Amino acid sequence: MTRTYISRHPLEDLLPLEPGIRAVDHLDIPRAMAIAAVMAMDGEEAAVAAGLAASGDVQVRFTGPGEWLILSQSETPEELHRNLSLLLAETAYIVDQSDGRIVFRLSGPNVRRILAKGIASDLHPAVFEIGTSSNVLCGHISVNLARTGENEFELIVMRSFAVALFNDLRVMGREFDLSADFSAQG
Amino acid sequence: MASLIHCPHCGVRPKEEFSIRGDASLVRPDPEASDEAWNDYVHIRSNPRGRYREHWQHAAGCRRWLVVERDTFTHEVFSVADAASAAREAGR
Ligand SMILES: [Zn+2]
Q1: A135 to chain B: which residues are within 8 Å by CB?
Q2: pTM reported for the whole predicted model
Q3: Domain range summary for chain B, segments of one domain joined by +
Q4: Which tens digit of pLDDT belongs to each residue from B3-56?
Q5: SS3 B45
Q6: Contact A65 B63 (CB under 8 A)
Q7: How far apart are CA A84 and CA A68, in angstroms?
Q8: How far apart are CA A2 and CA B88, in angstroms?
Q9: CATH for B4-89?
Q10: Which is nearest to A77 in space by CA: A105, A43, A100, A47?
């Protein structure tokens, strides 16, 4: 028997079809994003880091020594995988994670007060600078947290934890009337 | 319990992000070693009051194994090192 697999976002049933009223603190959820995990081969950590830093259009998130998550908004998962394979040939292992991870984009003036309810790490602007990324614990869920702007953070979570993290973020943001929607950019 | 651990890869983190395996000073015996040596290695642990070296895994962070040297009485943390580099330095 053949089956047709349809890509479905795990928050499909939890978010309204039409965009609602956007509050100052907002949770923006991209529907689709090309994501790849990169692990440097033994001894190639510095070479891979340099290659990724020069790769331009993709976003590089630190997950551990010699390990990164690579995000691309403009490429398909296949394109991202192919381009990374060409760039890092024979120096790193690359695994597609596009269906395995979900991205949350949290922004607004109260973003640190919202995150402080689940994350114990220091997110002061002078400590957690723009461009910083790291795996942290949010409540009981391990997420990759990145600061992408002055008051903007991105959380990447394993797909099976997306609904739980979404519910947590809603509760964390309720005090500030946090709104949530799928990203307009798709 | 020491509540803040300075991970060499991730920075200062709460202890909730880690899982603790135990004594980091044990050395695996030779495969041909006596049953007593293996019994000691697998089962026998001291429960020291004071300075202690343990394996901690940064499970919710970088997922690396670390060697944490801390005081079980005062909660003071003396050092945190990556376990792979610690093993390399010890010649293992
Ligand atoms: Zn760490």
Answers
A1: 10, 60-63
A2: 0.91
A3: 4-89
A4: 899 999 999 999 999 999 999 989 899 999 999 999 999 999 989 999 999 999
A5: coil
A6: no
A7: 12
A8: 52
A9: 3.30.2270.10
A10: A100
**Measured between beta carbons, which residues in chain A are less than 8 angstroms from residue B82?**
65
Q: Quick check: B1 and B73 in contact, CB under 8 A?
A: no
Q: What number of CA atoms fall less than 13 Å from residue A91's CA on the CB side?
A: 17
How is residue B30 annotated by DSSP? Answer: P
- Rounded to whole angstroms, the Cα distance separating A99 from A103 reads 11
Query: Tokens at residue B57, please?
Result: 């895994």
SS3 B65: strand
Q: What is the pLDDT of residues A138-170, one digit of tens each?
A: 999 999 999 999 999 999 999 999 999 999 999
Nearest to A142 among B11, B14, B60 (CB): B60
Which residue segments constitute the domains of chain A, with CATH numbers given?
A: 26-31+100-182 (3.30.1360.120), 34-96 (3.30.70.100)
Our CA-based measurement puts residue A87 at a distance from the nearest CA of chain B, in whole angstroms, of: 24
ipTM over 0.90: no
What is the Å distance from ligand 1's center to A176 Cα?
Answer: 31
